[in-house]
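From the pipeline queue, job 12 of 40. The input is one protein chain; the requested action is below.

Action: predict structure.
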Amino acid sequence: MSRHDAASTSASRRGFISQALGLAAAGASLVRPAQAQDLPTVQRAFIETPAGQIHIRRAGALSPSTIPIVCYHQSPQSSLAFADVLPYLAKNRLAVAVDTPGFGESFRPSHQPIIADYSKWLAEVSKRLGLAHVDVVGMFTGSAIAVETARQFPGLIRRMVLIGPALFDEEQRKQMLAAAWPTSPPRMGRF
């Protein structure tokens, strides 16, 4: 795939994500590009957790009158999948996109995690940010993490938008799990 094709695919994917989120359903309103300067800026940060540093992108401000929205990406992607829509989601509230551990710039777990592990780690991010209640957007793998987080931490998630939740039979699930863990990065000098 050429660089142009990859950029085009990436732009198309971002467009799909924006449409799939149904920004109005997520509490944001669409604005024209001319109004883009009025949108909050996306900032990056690392959240210290007992398991390691978790990278986030955030826009907007925490307000007592609104519920923050937290976005969980699909694997093997990162919070970059939500970078273009975060300012729109943050127009009237705090919007956060999280790199799940092992992806993006978050810590790499020492073992192959299961969805329940991701759920605990991402709930810890909400806790460290002082977010008692959140709305969640989960995309593919992120949908599974969102549902598990709601199960493990009742009361944390007020609403969920699930984009492409995985519905697998047992054999398909085993095949997906076997292929889901990212490969180790190359050592210096090796490709």
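Job complete. Residues 3-21 form the longest helix (19 residues).
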